[in-house]
């Protein structure tokens, strides 16, 4: 059934591309010129931040809190305990973790909290994910200027649905992953992953009289543990 | 209850002219209050965040040049996008116009045997009037953005491109939800209303395996698509279904992934007054084990290539749909979006809509502006909207040339007469004297003319006119010349 659809498509495709080419004849460029023109585009905006490492982390925390995210700081050694403390405080019992999650995190938490239920996502069904109350994931980057956390959905960050359906999302972000500006993120990840999610606070809407309401469809609670590793 | 109402659609072909459509809105004080409140809130937040961004102008300059570069090389970047997206497992379709786009989407839905589809907010789908078409072909389209649900359930039309239900207030939302969701005890607390929508849609997200989205950006270098949103309904639609269809205007492409560093900094601040919107998702074709396993992109021309061909108008296509121009526009802030009779209202709508209509409809929109330039000033990609408005006005005037009816237009007759009068000094002086006598009859003691008869009433209906002075400057000057002693310092 696909074949006729494909071949029928060739006609509008050619027509549209021809129309576009005709419309831009005045500025037609060969590949080399195009590359040159692209490279010469003005980019005088701020690319590199000016803050000290400490001030950068402070800004990240401040911005996250402005979005109503909960932030705690910890050291690499104390991380499993900090995770356990967050889980205990969440008042939830069933948690998900992506397959790349260090087992130490889960063991400590399970040992400290009775009745805690951990499920590792080895291809869980959507319904099972939907049943879980919370999820713990790593992240790829933090951007202090806008309080944004970036997920590339690696094995420790989980597939997209994992950090979407549960109402409570705990992100483990390392200090060395925090940059100050958005251009610094792009400088760090020049070969992007095929899937990227930029998260800036919990899901929100202002569609009713511009009143900001936290939590529409995505997780209503975003918690962040900032790990003070040596950057 | 589970069946979406046929969404009424703004059709510029059927809409009355702007001044006509604006009248009932201007009399609706509730609606004006709602629009004023919403645009005030966004503007204030936007201005605060723009002020804190020291490199705002540099970002605008970069974005403007980048978007112009894309348009100049559009065919190349689109082909590149197509190639990479296809290599990543996506299927790229091309649609010359709205009808082709609708047919392609319906074809895909038929192949998927889909009778229901969930949608992320996309103004492009409203542009091609997709929902009523799907409805007529037995496919129910469920909007999932909160504002879009309010409109869909309430049978309302969008009045803004970022917050389409800004003209509806909380008690009206309560009424719509209570009626359509069967929740009698719902209060008008926005939190409770939002929760009602969350519950209402959760089952749809989990049950309906086909989704339709728009695109904020297409990345040529990687074949990726980016969607910018707040609520998470976008992430739901991009993650849970089996099949994903993205409808995107051909102008939405960016050369490289890195170019998002410019656009994302500008878009959220301009659109909602946030440093960053809660969620931005980027995906590339199909990813095994994560999200839809069948992915289609429909690239829509629909007159965009004609706009591209006109040097001055081409910049219209730089638009990233942030709606900052609407929030800043003194005309939009009075009328709201409905008066524009198009899914694209406000200053950008005033230039985009008539062009999408090949200047055959919506010719009154280029006049729906005071040319104050506020839109240009806030535009993150520096579209010179006043310039394009003037260009389109000139085209409208050219269209009217040679039409017999034009000779009966009072404006035309008036300007021809003025042309004659201004050509000869003596004629002008005679006209001045006659005018002084004539208008003197209507001038009150306070020196103002409050109402004029006949054609003059068009002016005095909405404003007063100052009476002509007893003496013209010319006469005063002549008199003064004969009294050298009175000369000032």
Biggest β-sheet: strands ordered side by side in the sheet of chain B: 1-10-7-4-2-3
**Separation of the first and last Cα atoms of chain B:** 82 Å
Could you say which structural class the secondary elements and strand pairing of chain A correspond to?
alpha/beta
Ranges of chain B where pLDDT stays below 50 over 5 or more residues in a row are: 1-8
CATH class of the largest domain in chain B: Alpha Beta
Q: Kindly state the mean pLDDT of chain A as a whole number? A: 92
Helix percent of chain A reads: 25-40%
- Overall number of domains of chain A: 2
Largest pleated sheet of chain A: 6 strands, parallel
Spatial extent as radius of gyration of chain A: 22 Å
In CATH, the topology of the largest domain in chain B is named Rossmann fold
Rg over C-alpha atoms of chain B, rounded to the nearest angstrom: 27 Å
Please count the beta strands of chain A (DSSP E, at least 2 residues each).
12
Q: How many DSSP helices of chain A?
A: 7
Could you characterize what this model shows?
The complex is a heterodimer of chains A (231) and B (489). The longest helix of chain A has 22 residues, at 2-23. Chain A is an alpha/beta fold and 231 residues long. Chain A contains seven helices and twelve strands. Chain A has helices spanning 2-23, 31-39, 53-66, 79-90, 103-112, 126-131, 182-188; strands at 70-74, 94-97, 117-120, 134-138, 141-143, 148-151, 168-174, 178-179, 196-199, 204-205, 213-214, 221-227. Chain A has two domains: 2-39, no CATH class; 53-227, NagB/RpiA/CoA transferase-like (Rossmann fold, 3-Layer(aba) Sandwich). The radius of gyration of chain A is 22 Å and the shape is globular. Chain B is 49% helix and 11% strand. In chain B, helix 3 (56-72) packs across helix 12 (260-271), helix 9 (170-181) crosses helix 10 and helix 16 (346-356) packs across helix 18. The longest helix of chain B has 24 residues, at 29-52. At the A-B interface, helix 1, helix 2, helix 6, helix 7 and strand 9 of A face helix 2, helix 3, helix 4, strand 1 and helix 5 of B.
């Amino acid at each position: 059934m696909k074949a006729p659809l494909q071949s029928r498509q060739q006609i509008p495709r050619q027509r549209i591309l021809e129309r576009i080419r005709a419309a831009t004849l005045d500025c037609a460029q060969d590949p080399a010129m195009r590359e040159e023109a692209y490279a010469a585009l003005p980019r005088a905006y701020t690319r590199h931040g000016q803050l000290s490492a400490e001030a950068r982390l402070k800004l990240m925390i401040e911005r996250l809190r402005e979005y109503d995210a909960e932030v705690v700081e910890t050291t690499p050694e104390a991380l499993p305990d900090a995770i356990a403390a967050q889980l205990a405080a969440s008042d939830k019992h069933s948690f998900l973790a992506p397959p790349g999650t260090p087992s130490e995190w889960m063991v400590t938490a399970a040992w400290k909290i009775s009745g805690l239920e951990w499920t590792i996502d080895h291809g869980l069904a959507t319904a099972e994910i939907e049943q879980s109350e919370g999820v713990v994931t790593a992240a790829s980057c933090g951007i202090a200027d806008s309080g944004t956390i970036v997920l590339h959905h690696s094995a420790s960050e989980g597939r997209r649905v994992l950090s979407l359906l549960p109402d409570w999302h705990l992100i483990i972000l390392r200090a060395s992953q925090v940059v100050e500006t958005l251009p610094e993120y792009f400088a760090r990840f020049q070969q992007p992953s095929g899937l990227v999610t930029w998260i800036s606070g919990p899901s929100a809407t202002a569609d009713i009289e511009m009143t900001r309401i936290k939590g529409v469809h995505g997780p209503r609670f975003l918690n962040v543990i900032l790990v003070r590793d040596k950057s | 209850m589970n069946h979406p109402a046929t969404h009424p659609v703004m059709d510029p072909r059927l809409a009355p002219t702007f001044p006509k459509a604006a009248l009932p809105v201007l009399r609706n004080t509730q609606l004006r209050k709602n629009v004023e409140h919403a645009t005030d809130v966004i503007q204030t937040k936007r201005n605060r965040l723009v002020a804190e961004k020291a490199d705002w102008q540099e970002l605008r300059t970069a974005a403007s040049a980048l978007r112009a570069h894309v348009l100049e090389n559009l065919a190349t970047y689109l082909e590149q996008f197509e190639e990479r997206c296809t290599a990543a497992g996506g299927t790229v379709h091309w649609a010359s116009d709205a009808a082709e786009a609708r047919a392609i989407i319906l074809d895909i839905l038929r192949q998927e045997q889909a009778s229901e589809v969930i949608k992320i907010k996309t103004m492009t789908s409203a542009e091609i009037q997709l929902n009523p078409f799907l409805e007529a072909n037995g496919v129910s389209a469920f909007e999932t953005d909160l504002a879009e649900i309010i409109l869909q359930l309430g049978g309302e039309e969008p009045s803004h491109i970022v917050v389409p239900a800004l003209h509806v207030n909380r008690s009206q939302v309560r009424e719509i939800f209570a009626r359509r969701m069967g929740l009698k005890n719902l209060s008008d607390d926005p939190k409770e209303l939002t929760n009602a929508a969350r519950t209402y849609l959760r089952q749809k997200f989990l049950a309906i395996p086909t989704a339709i989205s728009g695109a904020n950006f297409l990345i040529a270098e990687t074949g990726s698509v980016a969607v910018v949103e707040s609520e998470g309904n976008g992430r739901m639609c991009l993650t849970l279904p089996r099949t994903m269809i993205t409808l995107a205007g051909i102008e939405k492409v960016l050369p490289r992934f890195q170019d998002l560093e410019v656009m994302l900094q500008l878009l959220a601040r301009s659109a909602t007054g946030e440093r960053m919107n809660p969620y931005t998702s980027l995906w590339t074709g199909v990813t095994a084990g994560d999200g839809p396993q069948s992915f289609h992109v429909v690239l829509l021309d629909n007159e965009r290539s004609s706009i591209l061909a006109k040097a001055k108008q081409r910049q219209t296509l730089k638009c990233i749909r942030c709606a900052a121009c609407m929030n800043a526009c003194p005309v939009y802030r009075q009328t709201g979006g409905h008066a524009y009779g198009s899914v694209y209202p406000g200053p950008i709508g005033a230039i985009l809509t008539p062009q999408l209509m090949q200047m055959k409809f919506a010719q009154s929109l280029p006049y729906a502006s005071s040319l104050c330039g506020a839109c240009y000033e806030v535009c993150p990609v520096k579209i010179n909207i006043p310039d394009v408005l003037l260009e389109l006005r000139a085209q409208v005037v050219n269209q009217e040339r040679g039409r017999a009816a034009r000779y009966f237009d009072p404006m035309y007759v008036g300007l021809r007469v003025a042309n004659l009068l201004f050509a000869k000094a003596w004629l002008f002086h005679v006209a001045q004297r006659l005018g002084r006598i004539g208008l003197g009859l209507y001038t009150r003691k306070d020196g103002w003319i409050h109402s004029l008869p006949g054609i003059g009433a068009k002016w005095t209906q909405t404003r007063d006119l100052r009476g002509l002075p007893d003496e013209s400057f010319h006469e005063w000057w002549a008199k003064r010349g004969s009294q050298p002693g009175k000369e000032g310092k």
